[in-house]
Amino acid sequence: MNETYTEQRYVPRRLSGQRVVKVETIPPGQRGEGDAPIARELILVKVHLQDGGMRYYGTTHAHIDASLRMVIAINPQDEVLRTWEQVRTDSKPRLIIEICPHEAVADASACLPNGKPVSDDPDITEALADCRGPGDCQPACEYVRDVVGVEFRIVVRNAKGEYVNRLATAEEKAKTARAIYFDSEAEFDDEPTAEMYLIWEAASREEQDEDED
Q1: Is the dihedral of CA 160, 165, 171, 174 positive or negative?
Q2: CA atoms of 128 and 22, how far apart (whole Å)
Q3: Same domain, yes or no, for 30 and 128?
Q4: Of 44, 62, 83, which marks where a domain is finished?
């Protein structure tokens, strides 16, 4: 990055109220006639929106990181771009899904690691919304599990009779998924399968909570 473009940000998953469907970069000197009037020494970042609209940005550096998201260098003086999500350098889970395996009240609900509601993080809110979108939800749920990062937790009573919040076991995940989706023929003893269903359930719960609000 040069002396002007000194910070990095993720290109958002949504801009101007529209879902971002594609991000492409065009190196300096390779632009077409109709491309945006961005300084020609910069990389042109073209952001395609769901409604067919387009947004253009200039940068000195762009790459896709391990989370499979586009990262661009920005000028920190840009009041709009500096509000975009900062690039994460840690691998800690960004989402907690708390499960309850008891048949009468089986549940999977989501919150942030600090205990606050998912709605406090627009990026995770959007990722969970993708899980309940039309079509095959598995890629979206895998994104939440593998890229956002999920920690499955459960509240249980220990040997002293005290309630503790700890990591859920594979068996507890399977039992919860089986209790929620009792009509399903899915193989919940396969831990990744159980996790996909629990993420989808937590995403559905978020939608219900939004409707109630």
Answers
A1: positive
A2: 19
A3: no
A4: 83
Residue 176 to residue 91: CA distance in whole angstroms: 26
Cα end-to-end span (Å), the chain: 43
Cα 136–Cα 47–Cα 68 angle in degrees, nearest 5: 55
Indicate the residue type of 59: T
pTM, entire model: 0.64
What does the pLDDT profile of the chain (213 residues) look like in tens digits? 456 898 999 998 888 878 888 999 999 878 776 677 788 889 999 999 989 999 999 999 999 887 778 999 999 999 999 989 888 766 678 899 999 999 889 999 999 999 999 999 988 999 999 999 888 888 899 889 988 899 999 999 988 889 999 999 999 999 999 999 999 999 999 999 999 999 999 999 988 766 665
C-alpha to C-alpha distance for 91 and 85, rounded to whole angstroms: 16
Residues 132 and 76 in one domain: no
Give dist(CA 119, CA 125) in Å, integer. Answer: 6
Residue in this structure with the two tokens 């627009």, named with its chain if needed: 122
Count of CB atoms situated within 10 Å of the CB of 149: 18
- Number of structural domains the chain divides into: 2
Contacts of 65 (CB under 8 A, 6+ apart): 71, 87
Domain span at residue 202 reads 95-212
Residue carrying the six token digits 């009509």: 183
Q: What is the largest CA-CA distance in the chain?
A: 73
Tokens of 125: 């809110």
